[in-house]
Amino acid sequence: GAVVSQHPSWVICKSGTSVKIECRSLDFQATTMFWYRQFPKQSLMLMATSNEGSKATYEQGVEKDKFLINHASLTLSTLTVTSAHPEDSSFYICSARQGAVGLAKNIQYFGAGTRLSVL
Amino acid sequence: KNEVEQSPQNLTAQEGEFITINCSYSVGISALHWLQQHPGGGIVSLFMLSSGKKKHGRLIATINIQEKHSSLHITASHPRDSAVYICAVSSFGNEKLTFGTGTRLTIIP
Question: At residue A89, does pLDDT exceed 90?
Answer without folding.
Answer: yes
